[in-house]
Amino acid sequence: MATALTAAWHLVLRTTGFASARPESPWETIGASPAERAAALARVLEDHVVNCGSDHPRTIAARNNLASKYSEIGLRGAAIAQFEQALDDAVKALGEEHAQTDVIRENLAWCYEDTARFDEAASHWERLVRQRSDQLGARAADTVGARAHLALAYRRTGRFDAAIAHYERALADSPDGSPGESESLRIGLALALRSAGRPEDSCPQFRMVLAQRRRRLGARHHQTLTVHHQLGRACAAAGHAAEAVRILRDVYRDCLAAVGDPEVRLLTLKVRRDLAAAYRAAGRPKEAAALY
């Protein structure tokens, strides 16, 4: 049922002509620069405002598309201003639960995230989760995606218990999600648990992601090493000094074996630092000193 509802939802969005925050633009095909494409979209918006009025659906769509282009080329402040205006106009002209209003609200929430305005993003993700749960069902991909973003916003604003609850709900509602999606949710849950002072509970989440990434990417892939490192840090925070030493030592060896990757080189420095701290916590200062 959720799949059918989601398909219907996307059909509605496609027929509106609305763009996401990362749109496919017709200007891409004629060799114009990003600034020129933005200027062209601004002219389209001006024409619609003059000919149709600010609250006409075509004008709202044009404003959303211009904001999306601004977001795409890094003009976050300008994008937010246009998305905020488009959302106000859409709510007044179309209503809170209209599909076009939903698209604009999501785009605005993404922009708030991109500018680290997580409190403001959270208020929009909260509404999107409620509306999509009612219209699409809790297990629909769009609902789960909004809930994952809400959990992130809560975690980044220090509301760790609420973040944990939404990460757990998102995982429960998406048992058939892609490996990357489930891994991202589990990592977010683990980080929220650790930040909430529950490092012991974060370890199983990191272990599950580590096992999945070893199978999917290999033990020495940067993404695998990053999770392996986080597992070692969680064990250290939980007071398991000996286990932290063992895990971080294994990560350090794998990092050294893959040090040709620039990202792994940077990670290696962090792992070495944390391994030295784990040695000291385990009462092995000589081995810690030997790392430097």
Please, could you describe this protein's structure?
This protein has 292 residues and is mainly α. The chain has a domain at 178-292: Serine Threonine Protein Phosphatase 5, Tetratricopeptide repeat (Alpha Horseshoe). The protein is 78% helix and 0% strand. It is built from 14 helices and no strands. It has helices at residues 2-16, 34-52, 57-72, 76-94, 99-114, 118-135, 141-156, 160-173, 179-195, 199-217, 222-237, 241-257, 262-281, 285-289. Helix 5 packs antiparallel against helix 6 and helix 6 packs antiparallel against helix 7. It is elongated. It starts with a helix and ends with a helix. The model is unreliable at 1-16 and 20-25 (pLDDT under 50).
Features:
mainly alpha; elongated; 14 helices; 292 residues; 0% strand; Serine Threonine Protein Phosphatase 5, Tetratricopeptide repeat
Termini separation comes to: 59 Å
Output the CATH topology of the domain at 178-292.
Answer: Serine Threonine Protein Phosphatase 5, Tetratricopeptide repeat
- Percent range for helical residues? over 70%
**Looking at the chains present, what oligomeric state does this protein adopt?**
single chain
Q: Spell out the helices and strands N to C.
A: HHHHHHHHHHHHHH
- Rg for CA atoms: 23 Å
Q: Any idea what the CATH superfamily of the domain at 178-292 is called?
A: Tetratricopeptide repeat domain
Q: In one word, what is the shape?
A: elongated
By secondary-structure content and strand pairing, the structural class works out as mainly alpha
Q: Taking all residues together, what is the mean pLDDT?
A: 91
Residue fraction in strands:
under 5%
CATH architecture of the domain at 178-292: Alpha Horseshoe
Total strands: the figure is 0
The profile of the biggest β sheet is: none
Counting DSSP H or I runs of 4 or more residues, the number of helices is 14
- Unreliable residue runs: 1-16, 20-25
CATH top level of the domain at 178-292 is: Mainly Alpha
Keywords: Repeat, TPR repeat
TPR repeats: 144-177
GO molecular function, one term: identical protein binding
Protein name: Tetratricopeptide repeat protein
